[in-house]
Here is the input.
Amino acid sequence: MSIFNTQGNLVPIHADNTKTRDWLVLLEASTIVGHERDKLRVALTTQERKLVKRRKLFGKTEHFLVVDGYDPRIHALYFCPQLYKNEGGALVPLTGGEIGLLMAQALEGGAMKSHRGTSRLIACQKKRL
Here is the structure.
């Protein structure tokens, strides 16, 4: 056993996302064949996270998030702040599952149906200037 064993897949993230307490939402493209399903489903919503730093010689520190079972072909990782809904004049925080469903509905246009009946997730990443 190694002291560097992370027990999961490393997903590169921006350094700004390491300091926040935003919700972590992992969306998965539909991989179920047969009945008509939603193009995207929520695979994980949490505020807990395990971070790993890697330093390169004469380079920047790279930050990674440890996510079990992450596959970049069918998964997309998003950070979302706490969202609220108005119930009877009072603001009530949404749960992680509700936030994930809102994001899945908003991003459903980015999932394309393949010829085999499964979906592939087409994710666009913004580069930071």
